[in-house]
Design a protein that fits this description.
By secondary structure, the protein is α/β, with parallel strands linked by helices. The protein is built from 16 helices and 15 strands. The two termini are 38 Å apart. It has helices at residues 53-64, 78-81, 90-98, 112-121, 138-141, 145-157, 174-182, 193-203, 219-229, 251-256, 274-283, 297-302, 309-318, 331-340, 364-375, 387-401, and strands at residues 6-9, 68-73, 86-88, 105-109, 127-129, 164-169, 186-188, 212-216, 237-240, 259-262, 288-291, 305-306, 324-328, 345-348, 382-385. Strands 1-15-5-4-2-3 form a six-stranded mixed β-sheet, with helices on both faces. A five-stranded parallel β-sheet has the order 7-6-8-10-9, sandwiched between helices. It has a four-stranded parallel β-sheet with strand order 12-11-13-14, with helices on both faces. α3 runs parallel beside α4 (112-121) and α7 packs across α16 (387-401). The protein folds into three domains: 6-136 and 357-386, NadA-like (Rossmann fold); 141-267 and 393-401, NadA-like (Rossmann fold); 269-348, Rossmann fold. The radius of gyration is 21 Å and the shape is globular.
């Protein structure tokens, strides 16, 4: 049996490189185990042109039987998601994996932070596999643990840290979730971000300043939630830029702010623009604009409906035949919705084709390679969060699960 190739993540394995220090490595060449990208496959990767890839994937899955449980994220390409036992968003899939303790292998067709969450929530006997270790998340990469710790030190120096509760979006690394767990914070999804913020402010209701939130790592979800769901103003929010001294903020700005937004964003949802919304409304009177809350504030303000990926799917399922929709989320999902609902007119809310490039790194050759390796007795690309990070990250996740009244789906 070949030695397992394991990527251990978390504070115990982090050498505190900053985001600007991440090396640029050609896909599939070289290793950098402190980042989520550029890790080579230990073995032969099947050619993308191999006409037998589908048959090989089917054979490997059949050979593994109940020993393997395949998770497919909604943004995954069709050629891979066809092999998923369940589909969904990141946290839902991690919980689905935890509900299958008999599965020895969890093959996660998603990105790195999702596989980390699955490892945190599954049993120690289960092994979580990410078919391509280069499948990271640009948003998660925008908040490195060393940068967040530096920001917290600045909050301490400004005299406001005792007023602050950190809240991290599910789309963050395990060590950022663990940071929140250690500092009395919580994880949220796009479905329950408002409930998480309400909970966070309630933890500091006895403070003279009334409490503050450090929202990681997506500034747009944080801003849209604070302003449109919580009734705050844009002036109540400031943006912490980890590339600038003191985040680019003065101590007084930190003291005055209610929400400190980390300067991160989704590379897909950040592409949608308000001018495209205006153009589509001119071209298609009566069109419905449906977007994800990771979109920029000006796009969200122009939308008819805003919600999580699950909300988007259910909205389209319930929409009347003949209705017209422009959807602002990842293109694989939009295309799948259009194919599934031919009685509705569904278009993509962007001028250009834009897939989630890191999600799309999980392709059929990598999936076949990972599955056939497991059949041969080689555990490849195992994601393993260190025990201390797992402990504190789970605290933040459990606080989210205890939040009242809202779904925990993304």
């Amino acid at each position: 049996m070949a030695a397992p190739f394991i990527v251990r993540t978390g504070a115990a394995y982090d050498d505190h490189v900053s985001i600007i220090d991440l090396p640029l490595l050609p896909l599939g060449k070289g290793r950098d185990l402190t980042s989520e990208r550029g890790v080579e496959c230990p073995g032969d990767l099947p050619a993308a042109s191999d006409p037998d890839l589908v048959a090989r994937a089917e054979a490997a899955k059949a050979a593994l039987g109940s020993r393997v449980f395949v998770l497919g994220h909604h943004y995954q390409r069709d050629e891979v998601i066809r092999f998923a036992d369940v589909t969904g968003d990141s946290f839902k899939l991690a919980r689905d994996a935890a509900a299958r303790p008999e599965a020895e292998f969890i093959v996660f067709c998603g990105v790195h932070f999702m596989a980390e969450s699955a490892d945190i929530l599954t049993s120690p006997d289960q092994k979580v596999i990410l078919p391509d270790l280069a499948a990271g998340c640009s948003m998660a990469d925008m908040a490195r643990i060393s940068q967040v710790e530096d920001a917290w030190d600045a909050l301490v120096e400004a005299g406001v840290a005792d007023d602050v509760v950190p809240v991290t979006y599910m789309n963050s690394s395990a060590d950022i979730k663990a940071f929140c767990g250690k500092h009395g914070g919580v994880v949220c999804t796009s479905s329950n971000a408002d409930v998480a913020l309400e909970w966070a402010f309630a933890q500091k209701s006895d403070r003279p300043a009334g409490g503050k939130v450090l929202f990681l790592p997506d500034q747009h979800l944080g801003r849209n939630t604070a302003v449109l769901k919580m009734g705050m103003t844009l002036d109540d929010c400031v943006v912490w830029n980890p590339q600038l001294p003191n985040g680019g903020l003065t101590a007084q700005e930190l003291r005055d702010a209610k929400v400190i937004l980390w300067r991160g964003h989704c590379s897909v949802h950040g592409r949608f623009t308000a001018d495209v919304v205006d153009r589509l409304r001119e071209q298609h009177p009566g069109i419905n604009i449906l977007v994800h809350p990771e979109c920029t504030h000006d796009v969200v303000l122009k939308a008819d409906l805003v919600g999580s990926t699950e909300f988007i799917i259910k909205t389209i399922e319930a929409a009347p035949a003949g209705s017209t929709w422009a959807i602002g989320t990842e293109l694989n999902l939009v295309k799948r919705l259009a194919d599934t609902h031919p009685d509705k007119n569904i278009v993509f809310l962007d001028r250009n084709v834009c897939y989630c490039s890191t999600m799309n790194r999980i392709d059929l050759p990598h999936f076949v390679w990972a599955m056939e390796s497991l059949v041969a007795g080689a555990v490849v690309n195992q994601i393993q969060v260190d025990p201390d990070t797992e402990h504190h990250a789970k605290i933040a996740l459990e606080r989210m699960l205890a939040l009242p009244g809202k779904s925990h789906r993304d």
